Every structure is written in C-alpha cells, then in structure tokens.
Amino acid sequence: MEKKLYRSSRDKKIAGVCAGVASYLNIDVTVIRVIWAVASVFAFAGVIAYLVCALVIPEEPGYIDV
C-alpha cells in the first residue's frame, strides 16, 4: 500500500500540518510540534515552511467533522 502525506483533519491545532507529518513518519505529534516551534523561534524559516506545507499538502480525505 502506498503511503501518502495529508494534513490531519482530526488532530489539528492550526492547519493539521504537524499532525499529518507525524502520522506519515509514525512519530508522536508532540515531538513534531516541538521541533517545528523551535525551528520557528530560532529561524523564521519554520513559519514559512508551515505556511507552504499548509497550502501544498492536501487535507486528509474521508473525515467529516460533526
């Protein structure tokens, strides 16, 4: 089965990018969020990368938030 990267619809705080990356890499989402926060504080590139990912990575299909 082919593994695809999606933004999470279930475990999102802003756009679901960190949760999607964590799911894809099979890592705890907190670790990804901490790494992304540190990258954003020390190098503004983390913010730019998050915005680009939020625009480029498609949202997880088949989830309906009720």
Provide structural commentary.
With 66 residues, this protein is mainly alpha-helical. It is built from 3 helices and no strands. It has helices at 17-25, 29-42, 45-56. Helix 1 packs across helix 2 (29-42) and helix 2 crosses helix 3 (45-56). The longest helix is centred in the middle third of the chain and has 14 residues, at 29-42. It is globular, with a radius of gyration of 12 Å. It starts with 16 loop residues before the first helix and ends in a 10-residue tail after the last helix. The mean pLDDT is 87.
What tags apply to this protein structure?
globular, 66 residues, mainly alpha, single chain
Query: How far do the termini sit from each other?
Result: 29 Å
Largest sheet, in brief, is:
none
What are the segments in which pLDDT stays under 50 over at least 5 consecutive residues? none
Rounded radius of gyration (Å): 12 Å
Strand segment tally: 0
Measured as a percent range, the helix fraction is 40-55%
Which structural class is indicated by helix and strand composition? mainly alpha
**Average pLDDT rating:** 87
- Broad shape: globular
Approximately what portion of the residues adopt beta-strand conformation?
A: under 5%
Helix-strand sequence: HHH
Count of alpha and pi helical runs: 3
